[in-house]
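User: quick one - fold this with iron/sulfur cluster bound?
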Amino acid sequence: MGVDIKDEYNLKVSYKVVDYTLPKIVYITIAPTAKVYVKVGDKVLKDQLLAEIKTKKYYSSISGTIIGFCKVKDHNNKNLPAIAIKNNFKEQSKKIKIDYNNVEQCDLKLSSKLKTLKDCTLIVNALEDEPYIANNILIIRDYCEKILKTLDKLANDFNLSKVVIIIGINDKDSINKLWNSIGRYPNITVNLIDSDYTNSCEIVLAKKVKKHYSNFKIISLYDVLKVYNYFINNTLVSQKYITISGRGVQKPKVINIKYGTPLIQAINDNIKIKKDLEYHFITNGLMKGKEVDLNLLCMNENIDGIIIQDIKSYLEKPCINCGLCAKFCPIGLDPKYLKENKKYSNKCIHCNLCSYICPSHIDFSKYLKKEAK
Ligand code: SF4
Ligand code: SF4
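Assistant: Sure. Structure tokens for the protein plus iron/sulfur cluster:
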């Protein structure tokens, strides 16, 4: 796959987030080995436990009736089982009380992050992960007060020495929004860094932050929203902002989508696709994303965006030893050496920058996978 992002790098999304949180049916994706606690005909509440594996629990994102079990696609285009629930549009929720001691029951990943926070500097990664994705800008615009209130709570509860929100230098809207409210929170500051691709990767960001802070932990803006929902709002997260953009889209938009919503419906109802070319659907961005079958793709927390794009195919040519791949690798690897020696480096963050930059259009992704060891 060839990617071509330079010409439209500065994505302009509509400033109004589209609300798409009332789907008729949701399909909650579960692991194939999950133990399922519901059967067809059961009535369920929003936030009710549906199934679990050792490391993850699956909750209903709506209230309604279980109508069946089926197969859907996840963000990596893998087939996975799903539980289909028909919405009764009442949003009846199961009352839950989540605190730091029991948060691992609903979010193991976040719980293990929170356990390491004591007495450190908390770095909040508010950078966009990929070109063409604009979720964080609109999260800051819509949830600025809630985010600051949540960070203030974390600062007090974990005795944090400081909270630093990292924003891309080009993200003027977020900078203005935060500056207007941050005065009330003396523990919280904003730091600006280049909006360059890969700076949002936790490993790359940690390398940059290390120069200024010795004891720090990084969490994402999405994690902060989760903390707000769990500990202040007493609810689980059942919806998320995602960006629909790309060359095939007439007006890129950020849509607030309920987990389990079929994405083809959300796109058909909200997005105009240009008719001139054959477009492909890529989850989460052009650099690291995966092409997916949109007909079976349902919303889950791992989806940040759908890029609708024509895909250029390039013929791989021999290496001309320009050295660009090593020069631009954010981790300091030599992708060409790894490819030639069939070596896998577990330091690789699979950002795909080496393939993007290579004038010979060498697709390193197939050489940098673990199987190439
Ligand atoms: S994908 Fe390429 S550029 Fe990115 S970390 Fe791995 S080797 Fe480096
Ligand atoms: S960027 Fe491509 S052409 Fe240049 S050294 Fe690396 S592999 Fe060779």
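One thing worth noting: The longest strand covers residues 64-73.
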